[in-house]
């Protein structure tokens, strides 16, 4: 049972990751970014999730350094972007990210998308970085089962985590079960579907029952499903609200009702259809 935002899941290599983090996707306004991270850290968050393509690693690094919180108490994730994939290219991209962040190491480094023809070489670079001690854990993002099976055949170290689009419309049950069998933690991006589920009667009903917001109900569903979650917000009130989900518990019946909302609808791209051109 998870009791606090400071509680953790234990990854397969023994590293502990907070059950919830702050996502900073598309947050490039420096003052807004700094304010969001300050609010999150004050509210108890210890995980900040960024990526090279977000163009805010330097701002994240400055904000966490100025927070005064000990580095070992923080968990920082970043990701290698599609145009930097390949073995040598990824090693170079990581050094750029590390310099931008102003850190000596990253807690979790992910392959952002399974780019055809390069993602196995990219992942081998992550293994090298892990061996060097510059990364405490390595994983992937937006990988289907077959992408993971390819890594299992061609790489030495299993990913500890797979960050995917995950919300009641897209719970990815088969992928979650597959990851569970292989001791890979599932982590949710766009867990709130950018507000696209807030008016659903099942969620509204639960929110009214517990005196919570629809967002809090969805994030609680994530946590009770054993999923790490990284809601993105720059609004101080919402950042605090998202963290306030540890004083109630959805019943088994309510969890099952949430499961009936699945319709396969995505906010992002299908990982099987990604190309460099599809992100231009």
From TrEMBL:
- Ranges for the NADP-dependent oxidoreductase domain? 24-261
Keywords on record: NADP, Oxidoreductase
Q: Which domain of life is it from?
A: Bacteria
- Pfam families found in the cross-reference section: Aldo_ket_red
Oxidoreductase as UniProt keyword = yes
Q: Which family does it belong to?
A: Belongs to the aldo/keto reductase family.
Which protein is depicted? Aldo/keto reductase
């Amino acid at each position: 049972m998870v009791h606090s935002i400071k509680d953790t899941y234990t990854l397969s290599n023994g590293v502990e990751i907070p059950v919830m983090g702050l996502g900073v996707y598309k947050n490039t306004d420096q003052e807004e970014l700094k304010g969001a991270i300050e609010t999150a850290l004050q509210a108890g968050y210890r995980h900040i999730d960024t990526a090279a393509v977000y163009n805010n690693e330097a701002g994240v690094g400055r904000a966490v350094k100025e927070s005064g919180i000990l580095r070992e108490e923080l968990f920082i994730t970043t990701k290698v972007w599609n145009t930097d994939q390949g073995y040598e290219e990824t090693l170079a991209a990581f050094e750029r990210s590390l310099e931008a962040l102003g850190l000596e190491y990253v807690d979790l480094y992910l392959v952002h998308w399974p780019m055809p023809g390069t993602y196995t070489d990219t992942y081998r670079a992550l293994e090298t970085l892990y061996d060097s001690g510059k990364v405490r854990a390595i994983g992937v993002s937006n990988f289907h089962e077959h992408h993971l099976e390819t890594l299992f055949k061609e790489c030495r170290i299993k990913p500890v985590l797979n960050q995917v689009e995950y919300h009641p419309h897209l719970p990815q049950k088969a992928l979650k079960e597959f990851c569970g069998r292989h001791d890979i933690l599932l982590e949710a991006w766009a867990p709130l579907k950018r507000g696209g589920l807030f008016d659903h009667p099942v969620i509204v009903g639960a929110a009214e029952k517990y005196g919570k917001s629809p967002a809090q109900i969805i994030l609680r569903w994530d946590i009770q499903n054993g999923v790490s979650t990284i809601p993105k917000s720059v609004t101080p009130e919402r950042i605090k609200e998202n963290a306030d989900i540890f004083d109630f518990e959805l019943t088994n019946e309510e969890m099952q009702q949430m499961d009936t909302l699945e319709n396969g609808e995505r906010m992002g791209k299908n990982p099987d259809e990604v190309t460099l051109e599809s992100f231009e």
